[in-house]
Amino acid sequence: MAKNKELIILTEGAIVTAAAQVLNFVPHSVGISSIELVYGLIPMAIFALRRGLKAGLMAGLVWGLLDMLLRGISSGSVLNPLQGFIEYPIAFAAIGLIGLGSVHVKKVILDKKNSLGPILLFCTIGFGAKYFFHFIAGGIFWASFAPKTMNPWIYSLVINGGSFIANMIMMFVLVVALHKVFEKLIIVNK
């Protein structure tokens, strides 16, 4: 029975990772061209809350590798191996930190309490970790792209902080609008 459960989790992870990658091909720039909505964060957040930390980290890692191979290298977004490693496998795996809240969120849902706050809290942790790694890479590796009059760290904070805020707003709107659906997606039926 345990092997069957592992296979189900692995299959779900593969499907969610593929869906997240497909969603990355949908145009998603907001305002300043470097601020992006990352639609794949939504299925990844649901998966991490549904299946927990380990599954969330692994799915994020695979998504990061896939995105680096399919979009990052061909678009010139990988400047060198270290930067590519930080901004793709590491940053994307960090999304899995949402899974830290899996048990708590499920308990809140099963107790028929409002799960909006816990879901958003743990999404903030996962999204924040992802954009923290992008911020570090931005300050170090993308510094030459900052406007000449702006400190590269401030530029990285504006771009990556803007992306973080835009994605949190997107998540908030979806969780509020689809709250009951999110609950049904997070609870695993035996």
UniProtKB/TrEMBL annotation:
Q: Which UniProt keywords apply?
A: Membrane, Transmembrane, Transmembrane helix
Q: Which GO terms describe its molecular function?
A: thiamine transmembrane transporter activity
Q: Record's Pfam families?
A: Thia_YuaJ
Q: Which InterPro entries did the record assign?
A: Thia_Transptr_ThiT
User: What parts of the sequence cross the membrane?
Assistant: 7-26, 32-49, 56-73, 85-105, 117-141, 153-178
Q: Which Gene3D superfamilies match?
A: 1.10.1760.20
Gene Ontology CC, one term: plasma membrane
Under what name is this protein listed?
Proton-coupled thiamine transporter
Source taxonomy lineage?
A: Bacteria, Bacillati, Bacillota, Bacilli, Lactobacillales
